[in-house]
Design brief:
By secondary structure, the protein is of the alpha/beta class. Strand 3, helix 4 and strand 4 form a beta-alpha-beta unit. The radius of gyration is 25 Å and the shape is globular. Bound molecules: tryptophan.
């Protein structure tokens, strides 16, 4: 954790105390058994936490539409660490999601001084090219640039009214000397995350954002802001059932029948409640009671698992009545892979990671030098076995290169029992990594000159 108990999204130095992070920021842990067709990153516990993933899982089960929003900083070269999010994106895409990819060119300008034209080149040649090679389907993938999508910036500006500097100070540690472009970046990211729900970008549907834990402050901010704009709060009742409560705000007071003097126009209020009731009854609930004056509707027969569908109905009604109807995003969090030297992986330290276009020889050299979980002598290793939790070669097989669970289990057993030596596990890693890199290169070659297929109309 960068500063005290705060996460700094712009620092490469992130805590890997995942248990504490889960508790501290109120994340939910991943229940593997609830995920249909879990991918490699799920099966191996690499995706360790989430917010509201059950909403998306519900969409998968019921074949309802949902989207994924992911973002990239167009600076530096793409390396293994970046591929983890894409593995997840591809998995969601296979489960039916549409994919929106943000090129965070405004953020890169604000926080790293990358010019927009430089950012564009890097985004396309380095990131989009590798995303294509990693197997994203262009049919349902849309890449856009923050700087050329006015709807995102409009949303950022509009939603900026729902937060203030003190909140940004508390979340991000911004101070008086923070440059204002940097202050705007998180708001633009709020716009990135929420805009796929706008009618012109696919309309109301759950959006999941797969990220490393460093991005969670942005997700907390986005969820908080989205929720503040909602006209109806859908809450689980302690005594059982679900309550829908009007959230009366400046821009909906009249629609909800609140008059200037503070009195309630009963006719208007009753009509709102009729609409609410109709929506809820259409979901199949019949045991309802309303308190129009207090602005609440109780659904006695609803259980917590009904909340997503009730929320959807209320968001549609909000839109019908003129509100934004924004659903707070869902998110998943993956572990950070260890750097090859045993410390953090960082693109500014090439010896800590494997780049997508590393030569085989370069990669081999790095693996051979990588931090090992082996014992100091062969004799001790045979006796005590290797430590997978410290071994970079093993972990890279686990995170990136070895797709077959039973092969990985065998490697683990052999290494831990001392049958497999440190040099040998490194060679296995080199073999798999070579195959992986060569395949990626071949796929990149196939996509050469065709990357426009991934770009949205407004980024051509
Ligand atoms: N802030 C992200 C990063 O540092 C980039 C980004 C911008 C992003 N908008 C996003 C990531 C929306 C996820 C979702 O890498």
């Amino acid at each position: 954790m960068a500063k005290g108990d705060r996460i700094d999204p712009w620092s490469s130095d992130q805590s890997t105390d995942y248990g504490r992070i889960v508790d501290q920021f109120g994340l939910e842990t991943v229940d593997l058994s609830s995920i249909p067709n879990p991918g490699m990153l799920h099966r191996r516990g690499i995706v360790f936490a989430h917010r509201d993933l059950d909403v998306v899982v519900g969409c998968i089960h019921q074949a309802n539409p949902f989207g994924v929003l992911t973002g990239l900083m167009p600076s530096g070269r793409m390396h293994l660490g970046h591929s983890m999010v894409i593995d997840q994106v591809r998995w969601f895409q296979n489960q039916g999601a549409d994919i929106t990819v943000t090129v965070a060119d405004l953020e890169a300008l604000a926080t790293r001084g990358t010019s927009l034209s430089e950012g564009r080149k890097t985004a396309i040649n380095e990131y989009v090219h590798n995303y294509a090679a990693l197997g994203l389907d262009p049919q349902t993938t849309n890449v856009y640039f923050q700087s050329s999508r006015p709807a995102v910036q409009r949303l950022a500006f509009t939603l900026g009214r729902r937060t203030n500097l003190s909140e940004f100070e508390a979340i991000y540690g911004f101070g008086g000397d923070t440059n204002l472009a940097h202050v705007q970046a998180p708001l633009v990211q709020v716009g990135d995350i929420l805009h796929p729900q706008l009618e012109e970008f696919g309309g109301l549907r759950p959006i999941v954002v797969p990220v490393g834990i460093d991005q969670d402050p942005h997700l907390r901010l986005t969820r908080d802001i989205a929720q503040k704009t909602n006209w109806f709060n859908v809450k689980i009742r302690k005594a059982g059932g679900i309550t829908v409560a009007l959230s009366i705000q400046e821009d909906n007071a009249a629609m909800f029948g609140l008059m200037n003097g503070g009195t309630v126009d009963k006719g208007i209020r009753t009509r709102v409640f009729k609409k609410m009731e109709t929506g809820i009854r259409n979901l199949g609930f019949s045991d309802l009671s309303t308190n129009e004056k207090h602005g609440t509707l109780e659904i006695y027969g609803a259980t917590p698992s009904d909340r997503p569908s009730i929320r959807m109905v209320m968001l549609s009604l909000e839109r019908e009545m003129g509100g934004m109807g924004l659903m707070p995003p869902c998110s998943t969090y993956h572990r950070f892979a260890v750097g090859m030297t045993g410390d953090k992986m960082s693109s500014s330290k090439p010896e800590t990671t494997i780049f997508m276009d590393d030569e085989i020889e370069e990669m081999s050299k790095k693996v051979k030098r990588a931090h090992s979980g082996g014992q100091p002598t062969v004799e001790e290793h045979r006796r005590l076995g290797g430590d997978c939790s410290k071994d970079v070669a093993f972990q890279y097989l686990q995170f990136f290169f070895e797709k077959d669970d039973s092969v990985l289990d065998e490697i683990r057993r052999d290494y831990e029992s001392g049958r497999l030596l440190a040099g040998e596990i490194k060679q296995l890693c080199i073999n798999s990594a070579s195959e992986w890199l060569l395949d990626l290169k071949e796929k990149r070659d196939q996509w050469e000159g065709r990357l426009d297929e991934f770009l949205s109309q407004d980024s051509l």
